[in-house]
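Re: Re: token formats

Sure, here are both.
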Amino acid sequence: MTNKIPTVPLAGSERRVVANARKLGQAAPEPTLQVTVLARRRTGAESVSTLATTLGNSAPAARVHLDPAEFAARFGADPADLARIEAFAHTHGIDVVDVKPAERRVLLNGSVGAFSAAFGVRLDDYVDPTGDHSFRGRSGPVHLPADLIDVVEGVFGLDNRPQARTHFRVQPPPPVDPAQSIIAHVANLSYTPPQLAAAYDFPTAGSGHGQCVAIIELGGGYRVSDLHAYFDRLGIAPPVIKSRSVDGARNRPTGDSNSADGEVLLDVEVIGAIAPGATIVVYFAPNTDAGFLNALSSAIHDPVNRPSVVSVSWGGPESSWTGQAMRAMDAVFQDAAALGVTICCAAGDDGSSDQRGLKAENGVLHVDFPASSPFSLACGGTRLESAGTPRSETVWNQGRSGGATGGGVSEVFVQPVWQQAAGVPLSGNPGHQVGRGVPDVAGNADPATGYLIQVDGQQMIIGGTSAVAPLYAALIALCNEQLGRRTGYLNPLLYGLTPEAGAFRDIRSGDNDISGRHGAYPAKAGWDACTGLGSVHGTRLLAALKAG
């Protein structure tokens, strides 16, 4: 008789069953799946967060970011730890597909039955509450042998439930003659990306040449014909756009402009129209926690394209994530800071609840992750009127049906030192916790004053904080070009700017209480939990970065 090896639950790996999902039964043991195991950093490694914070507190001209080889040597996984994970996999009849020491990831392939036995989990098949999608799910923690529990920081991919949602909202436009100039059409109605860049006084001396902007997408796709038609109408040469497959996902446009295609085209067209000289690389991954983590890690550690900025327009309430997933993705964002990569994340489109439907009425407030990571630039939403001088700008809040900017106080991440003098309120939830405040900055996101984009052959007006992340990713690409270097982790520097720098427009009108019942959070003088420091004045930000 074989002695069973004692196992220990992996902290933070606990999963809950999706509310109102219908269980179909235990998953068949034969199908294969891919799982990502995240190893610890090599023992004795200095703290990446300490290095990231040191860089963030330094003047841009004084920052010395690591190159990939330096990073791998200082902060990658110990080969001995990786070998132990590989041996564990082989013991259970699981194949090792790839090992990425710098990223600390081991990619495994095996059967449902083999993984269930190896990690002490039961996997079941479910249908989601809408009845539209089926997924493989689990509840409870992952288990590991005691001699691996300190080596492994996360196990991802056993459960393939959809993890994140897009943060874009569509405004139905009036009929448009396909031959009509986009610029003429949107006058006094909404904006093209170059018009918004002008409204926020982005630098005009460059085009983002020499920069690479990565975009993370968890579904949908783009057609080259859409991009050529869009940029032709704007009178802009199409940028260089590449796509990269992560975990088998690819550029697969659905033909439905209201699907994830809308997200993909919004991201690509906003960045391409504002920074057409930059190379854009779109990383397509499955919409799972494993897919999201692997896409971010692949982009940030890409040795060929070396992005200097990453735009992320997908996310979900902190409560929808496992602790291990949030820790792992936050660690990848720390990697980005060490490598000189700026991360721009959409703050969410469902107000201070960050929930849709009846969940928005339960009185519980949430912030959106990964925007809530202190190592991301969290991008909230405003309504920027297209008429008037100066243009009026208020908090974007059109209620439950029209959406509102996300924002609030994290229940997971402590308040960073650089935010402690900003006037972040206590959480509006019971207990009134002190935490990381979201967002950091804001920009035009109201669909009623949105961005005119072409998706699946249609011209559409789209808003949401999904537009603000690529808007500011493009700005950072322009700034990097002018500076001749990567800026990297911006948050400590932004919060340290004086009002005299004039880098932000303070938004003082509105709130992001989507139901009108929570009372959180109102705009006010200075930082607030709906627009952060305010909207960004591009040329003044560049001047502040040059001044250091």
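Second one below.
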Amino acid sequence: AKGVQFRGIATYHDTAQGKQRGTNTVFCFTLDDIKLCHLGDLGHLISQGQVNEIGAVDILFIPVGGFYTIAAANASRVCDQLKSRVIIPMHFKTPQCTYPIAGVDDFLRGKVNVGKMDSSEIEFKLGELPAVTEIVVLKPAL
């Protein structure tokens, strides 16, 4: 690795400016010239100012399960705003999850270029990132 650069962008864990569930930090990392953005427990649509702060994104980690975070429809809107090359959904219901959240299929409905992996790990290299946005669903570790 050539070094890691990262920064946090203040957001909220709900639609009430943190009054229900508090704050959330979006973390943007640059590693080997690949920009990753982890939205954490984002609970609202992002503003144009936040889009500008985040900037260009190669790989986006986005919550899609709802209830505690944004749900599928708003997750799709955020993906449209950030226009990343790879989207990795997270925070969705799995057989081991007892939280009252939706599964990943709500987010995937109607989407193209979707790959479901048999592993909870994947490796990306700058020159091999897709030209057209791809959604990669990793095998849940839990």
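The longest strand covers residues 4-12. Helices lie at 48-54, 72-82, 105-108.
- S.
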